[in-house]
Structure formats: structure tokens, C-alpha cells
Amino acid sequence: MVTAEVHDLVNKGHMLPLMEEFYTIQGEGYHKGTAAYFIRIGGCDVGCHWCDVKESWNAETHPPTSIDSIVDNAASYSDTIVITGGEPLTWDMGPLTTALKAKNLQTHIETSGAYPLTGTWDWICLSPKKNKLPEEEIYNVANELKVIVYNKHDLIFAEEQAAKVNENCILYLQPEWSVRDKMVPLIVDYVMQNPKWKVSLQTHKYLNIP
């Protein structure tokens, strides 16, 4: 049972519901192929039906963990740290990123943007979801926009989201894994007709790594 003191530390971002942490190769987006240490934070209410980490949704099933412990583990593996979830912005990312930056580590986040942006980031991957749209502020600072394509209508959604991001934001369309055989040809054709977009694939799954 989580004590009131621990609950308060979680709310302040000094402890976080840690689902898992692992060293691997970034498989998606701009930094694909780069060695990185991933920190997966539990808790998400966005509710994508095709989510491949639904076990991350319930924060209560993941132990509140001191950010000091998380940072020490991360620093021993890589200079590039990717915070993902779940939806990491459910929590205050300020204390975690301050501690990571104190060790001169690169901080990346993968987020739906559904909650206010907290923390200090070297790279922001915004992956918006229809169920719970991003907060407006994140569009101005996102480094990449990654839209998951599950069906043809997602291309319309992608254009709606692309119209909101800053002019330097890199645009990616990524097929949802379970329907990739159908969506890849559609995406390839769309990108060839609309070259402002790039194709993102979940290359880590092809490589059979986490």
C-alpha cells in the first residue's frame, strides 16, 4: 500500500511509477538506430485500442521509484535517455530531467502531449491521439510529429495535426504494427505524393529487440 508520503513524492515528481527500464536501440522516428536507455513510466488514460503496452496504463501496478535510482541506472548505460510510457506527462517530469541534465545526459520524450509539458528536453517526439488531443503549447516545441496510421482516416488526422506544429518539426507517418501489411503501401503512396512527410517504421520489432 502506498503511503501518503510516497503519494506526495509521486505527485511532485520525486518518485515515479516505473514500469521498466532498458538499454536498446531506438527503433522509431528521427533517432532510429541510435543506442538509448529507455525509461517507461506507468500511467495513461488516453486509451488507444491498439496500444502494445496496455500493461502500462494502470500506474498503481508499477512501484513508485526514486528518481535518484532511475537516474543512476540510466547514467551507467547511455548518454541518450528516452522517457516513454504510458503517458509520461501524466507526472511532473521536471525533477527527473533536472537530475538527468545534471549528469550531462540527453533527454528525449515520447508523448501524446495530452497533459501540460513539464521537464527540460533535448528532443520531443509528439505522437498525438484522437482520444485525447495534445495541449496547444506542445505543438510549438515538438521536434518531430509521429502519427500512427491504423486506418485511412488517420491520414486526415495527420494533416490536421501537421497544420499545428512549428515549421521545423519533422513529420512522420508510422503504420500501426498489427495492420502494417495493409497500411505500409498506403503510407508509401501518400508520402510519395506528399513529400513533406517521412515514413517511420518500428524497426526494433523487425530487429527483434525491445
Would you give an account of this structure?
- By secondary structure, the protein is of the alpha/beta class.
- The protein has one domain (about 5-205): Aldolase class I (TIM Barrel).
- The chain has seven helices and nine strands; from the N terminus they run αβββαβαββαβαβαβα.
- A nine-stranded mixed sheet has the order 3-1-2-4-5-6-7-8-9.
- β7, α5 and β8 (about 170-175) form a beta-alpha-beta unit.
- α2 (about 65-75) packs parallel to α3 (about 95-100).
- The model has no long low-confidence stretch (mean pLDDT about 95).
- It holds the Pfam family Radical_SAM.
Mean pLDDT across every amino acid position: 96
Instruction: Please give the largest β-sheet.
Output: 9 strands, mixed
The name of the CATH superfamily reads Aldolase class I
| CATH class identity | Alpha Beta
* Residue share in helix: 25-40%
Low-pLDDT windows of residues: none
Output the CATH topology.
TIM Barrel
